[in-house]
Amino acid sequence: MGTPGPATISLTAAGSAYGMRRSLAYLAGIVAGTIAVLLAVATGITAALLALPAVRPALIAAGAGYILWLAYHIAIAPPLAERQGDRPAPGLAGGALLGVANPKAWIAIAAVFASARLAGGTGTDAAAKVAVLTAMIVLINTAWLAAGASLAPLLRDPARARLVNRSLAGVLVAAAALTVVRP
Description:
The protein contains eight helices and no strands. By secondary structure, the protein is mostly helical.
């Protein structure tokens, strides 16, 4: 759950570009979107959707499109030293969209539900998994945002900032691609 992926990398980028406080709505959106994924997996909605052959490719295409759009904007973001005024930070809706479109979230959460057993009864087990994973989603994503915010002082140098922005964008695309390509 905590390894680099589309949501965690974008939170790191948002934290470094906008700071912790200005990125809180984006963090809340990612948390809400990821919890929506968690609930979709826990209730079986995911299994029902994936039983329809056309749904999986459509979901992958939509998620990949958004991740590529986000990576492009991270890559071209001006260095902190060159920013004019206060451009708005990514918001709640963008975070929620990434939370839902994040292929890594779907795979990781489905893997937990398919493999781990936390309680004896099916309902109790699902409730325990939802509780544990919800806490992990909040803590892990907050930590990635804080890590990004801690990078902000290093990004005052335009050349370094461009390199970091482009690297984060590249890692974002690579992490999403690896998630989709893996069996």
